[in-house]
Write a structure and sequence with these properties.
Layout: H1 12-21, H2 29-49, H3 53-65, H4 70-82, H5 84-113, H6 120-123, H7 142-157, H8 162-178, H9 184-214
Helix pairs in contact: 3-8, 4-5, 5-7, 5-9, 7-8, 7-9, 8-9
C-alpha cells in the first residue's frame, strides 16, 4: 500500500512572510518613522512654546557665530598659535574633519534625505529667537555635524580639550532647534554623523603621527641610556 504524498513545504522565507502578513501587528519601518516624525515635531513645538528670555539672545548669537564653521575655525586658529606643535596638529586635524564633514553632509546627506525645514511661525517660535532660515534641506544639521566632527578630531590629538569642545558642540546643536531652523532629529543625526567623521579623521591623524615617529632617525634612540 502506497503512502499518500506529503504536502509540499513552503520555503522558509515564504513561511516567514506569510506569518508576518497574516494579522501581524508588528510595526513596519514606515510606521516607526512616522511615529518618530510626530515625536520630533512635538519636541520642536514644546521647545518653541517654552519661554526662555535669558537664553534666547545668547543661543541666537551662538548659532550665528557657528555658521560656516566660523567658531571652529577661530578655535583652530587659537590652538595653532598658542598650543605649540601639538596644538597645530590638533588644529589641522580639526580643519580636516570640517572639510570631510562638509562634503558628507552637504553633498550627500542633505541631498539624500531632502527633509523640509520646520516652520517657526506655525510652531510659535518667538521672533527674538529666530535666525535666518537656510535654503538647504533640514536633515542632517550641518551645525551639529561640524561641531562634533571638530570636537572629536581635535580630542583625539589633545584629549584634555575633548569634553569642553563636545559641550560647546552640543550647545551649538541645541541652538539650531531653539532658534527654529531645525527639528531635534536633525541635530541628533548631525551629531552622530559628525562624531563618526571626527573620530575617523582624528584616529587617522594619530596613525600618521605614530608612523612618522617610528621612522629611523625621527627621534632619539630609546635604547640609549
Amino acid at each position: 500500500m502506497t503512502e499518500p504524498p506529503k504536502p509540499a513545504r513552503e520555503p522558509p522565507a515564504e513561511r516567514l512572510a506569510t506569518r508576518l502578513d497574516a494579522g501581524s501587528k508588528r510595526p513596519t519601518l514606515v510606521a516607526v518613522l512616522r511615529d518618530l516624525g510626530r515625536l520630533d515635531l512635538a519636541v520642536y513645538r514644546a521647545i518653541a512654546a517654552t519661554p526662555t528670555p535669558t537664553l534666547d539672545e545668547p543661543l541666537r548669537r551662538l548659532s550665528d557665530v557657528a555658521t560656516r564653521s566660523k567658531l571652529w575655525l577661530g578655535i583652530a586658529g587659537g590652538m595653532a598659535v598658542v598650543g605649540g606643535k601639538t596644538g597645530r596638529r590638533a588644529a589641522l586635524s580639526g580643519i580636516a574633519a570640517l572639510a570631510v564633514d562638509s562634503a558628507a553632509v552637504n553633498l550627500a546627506g542633505k541631498l539624500l534625505f531632502r527633509r523640509r525645514r520646520p516652520n517657526p511661525a506655525d510652531a510659535g517660535v518667538p521672533q527674538g529667537r529666530r535666525v535666518e532660515m537656510p535654503t538647504s534641506h533640514s536633515f542632517p544639521s550641518g551645525h551639529a555635524a561640524s561641531g562634533f566632527a571638530f570636537a572629536e578630531a581635535v580630542g583625539e590629538i589633545t584629549p584634555a580639550v575633548a569634553m569642553p569642545l563636545r559641550l560647546l558642540a552640543a550647545a551649538v546643536a541645541y541652538s539650531r532647534v531653539h532658534t527654529g531652523v531645525h527639528y531635534p532629529g536633525d541635530v541628533i543625526g548631525g551629531a552622530l554623523i559628525g562624531s563618526s567623521i571626527g573620530e575617523a579623521v582624528g584616529l587617522g591623524a594619530r596613525w600618521i603621527q605614530t608612523r612618522r615617529r617610528a621612522r629611523p632617525g625621527s627621534g632619539p634612540d630609546p635604547r640609549r641610556p
